[in-house]
Every structure is written in C-alpha cells, then in structure tokens.
Amino acid sequence: MAHVVVLGAGLSGTIMAYKLRDALGAEHQVSVINKGPEYSFIPSNPCVAVGWRDREAVTADLAPIFAKRRIDFHQ
Questions:
Q1: Cβ neighbourhood burial of 48 (10 Å; 0-12, 13-18, 19+)
Q2: DSSP conformation letters of 20-72
Q3: What CATH superfamily is the domain 3-74?
Q4: From its phi and psi, is residue 41 left (phi > 0), alpha (psi between -120 and 50) or beta?
Q5: What is the three-class DSSP state of 10?
Q6: Which of 3, 21, 22, 44 is deepest in the core (most CB within 10 A)?
Q7: pTM of the full predicted structure?
Q8: Per-residue pLDDT tens over the stretch 9-68
Q9: For the chain, what are the domain ranges?
C-alpha cells in the first residue's frame, strides 16, 4: 500500500490529489496537507472588496470536498 501526500490544497494541489485518487485505487491512501481549513479563490478578492461578491461565494470548506473523494485532509 502506498501513501501519497500532497502539500497544499490550492488549485494545483487539489487537482493532483484528485488525479492520484483516480489513478491509485482504493488500496492506496492519498492525503492533502494545507495551512488552513478553507480555499479562497484569490482572483475574486477585488470583487469581495468592492462588494460585488460575498466572501462565502469565493471560499470553500476543504474537508467535505476531499472526503467525497476519499482523500484524507489535514490542516
């Protein structure tokens, strides 16, 4: 059994974890380590600052997203 750890849950880290999960199979473990519990889409921050979007619209809670794909998440 392999245990692959991805550092960072930004766009690249999340995509890599998804691809690893799909390629490795259920007998292998995939984990993601991130510095916090949420992902914020940074290019949308100016829209939040001027009131065009709410913070909740550009932020995602990572734990349930990774749990759906059977990827362990550690912050």
A1: middle
A2: HHHHH-TTSEEEEE-SSSEEE-GGGHHHHHTTSS-GGGGEEEHHHHHHHTT-E
A3: FAD/NAD(P)-binding domain (3.50.50.60)
A4: beta
A5: coil
A6: 21
A7: 0.85
A8: 999 999 999 999 999 989 999 999 999 999 988 888 888 899 999 988 889 999 999 999
A9: 3-74
